[in-house]
Amino acid sequence: QAQQAKFLSDVENELEELAVTIAQAKKMVELIKGAATKERERVEKLFAEASEVLANFQKEVAGFIEDGERSMLGEAEADLRWKEERRAKLAQCKQNLENVPSTDTIYFLQEFQALKVAMEENLSPALSFQNELSFTKCTQGVGAVKDVLSAACKKQWDHLQGKGIDGLKFQETEEGLYSCNPSAWRSSRQPPSSPRRWEMPAGSMAPVIAFIIDLDSDTADKFIQLFGTKGAKRVLCPIPYPESPTRFINCEQVLGENLMNRGNYYWEVELIDGWVSIGVIAEDFNPQVSYNYSRLGRNEKSCCLQWNGQNYVAWFGGCKSVVQQPFFHTIGVFLEYSERALTFYGVKDSKMTCLQQLKVSHPAKGQFDPFQNKINHQFACLFLNKLKPAFFLESVDAHLQIGPLKKDCVSVLKRR
């Protein structure tokens, strides 16, 4: 009986414990359901807002095309009618002249004079619109939006799945820098705009820092329109930016907010349209100097790689070196601060082609390269400063986007 009583007591205790854990489990189930319902409602609301934004953008673009068509078509059709009427009139005068009997001199002279007057009538005014129809650029603009949306969706999906850029797990280092796994950003103490460290294999030298660039609106020239903190485009109408001592006033340039003063940094830029220069500049550079001196690479305080519509050109200190390589939409920039080196890569399908490296390197005996000579004598002094990413949009409609990093490029840099 004592054993039975003890057994029943144990069963009773187990039932009580199960009742407690069941109640806790039910609360957890309800909590999960409630959190999922709220998250689902928020996501649905955000998707609805995003759909409304896209629908409004579609409406605006369609209206832009219709307005452009209406204004240009009216002028073109009027010009066409004038030409058709003139041709019909000239044809009729010519026919009248040909029908005059050869013996009727007076009638012939009258019809001849009428034809002459018709020939001497003023031509129709020249068409005011340009050969290139403005609304034909809508496809390019909408395509750029589609590409940005696709890239953003893929990036955020990778974030949700916890995928890192190089497949690395989140790890905090002793110095407080973090791996470049986007899923870790939510729990890190640093904001996403700060640099993050990629772990390097054993035996490697300085680690590579994934440089997350945010464009600094306080430095943007008034003819540069910013799209968030990642996109920039040169425009014809000035933008009323507030006054800022760091703003470029004579040259269509903009800088990144982030500073570089040690270690290795890598970032990528998408060339969307026009002439664009990508490089670095000293933090203390005066943005209010003259146009000729303030352009990237035309002084000893900056250097860059320029795309001029035909080829790439490396610039430093007013000297240049033409790069014989095909066009790449994506340019990778690798700054090795301790090595005093800056390398530009063409990136395609996660493959990297070295376009130009700026680094002190003495040429073989008997050879002289003015550009390399300039590098050898003054380039190292650039690294006595804190540096910033810099961008020069040289042509109207020049457009760039700070691109998401290609995950395989990190592995390539590690092996180098």
Automatic annotation (TrEMBL):
<keyword id="KW-0863">Zinc-finger</keyword>
<dbReference type="GO" id="GO:0008270">
    <property type="term" value="F:zinc ion binding"/>
</dbReference>
<dbReference type="Pfam" id="PF25600">
    <property type="entry name" value="TRIM_CC"/>
</dbReference>
<feature type="domain" description="B30.2/SPRY">
    <location>
        <begin position="193"/>
        <end position="409"/>
    </location>
</feature>
<feature type="coiled-coil region">
    <location>
        <begin position="8"/>
        <end position="60"/>
    </location>
</feature>
<dbReference type="InterPro" id="IPR001870">
    <property type="entry name" value="B30.2/SPRY"/>
</dbReference>
<dbReference type="Pfam" id="PF00622">
    <property type="entry name" value="SPRY"/>
</dbReference>
<keyword id="KW-0479">Metal-binding</keyword>
<keyword id="KW-0862">Zinc</keyword>
<protein>
    <submittedName>
        <fullName>TRI47 protein</fullName>
    </submittedName>
</protein>
<dbReference type="InterPro" id="IPR058030">
    <property type="entry name" value="TRIM8/14/16/25/29/45/65_CC"/>
</dbReference>
<dbReference type="InterPro" id="IPR051051">
    <property type="entry name" value="E3_ubiq-ligase_TRIM/RNF"/>
</dbReference>
<dbReference type="InterPro" id="IPR043136">
    <property type="entry name" value="B30.2/SPRY_sf"/>
</dbReference>
<dbReference type="InterPro" id="IPR013320">
    <property type="entry name" value="ConA-like_dom_sf"/>
</dbReference>
<dbReference type="InterPro" id="IPR003879">
    <property type="entry name" value="Butyrophylin_SPRY"/>
</dbReference>
<keyword id="KW-0175">Coiled coil</keyword>
<dbReference type="InterPro" id="IPR003877">
    <property type="entry name" value="SPRY_dom"/>
</dbReference>
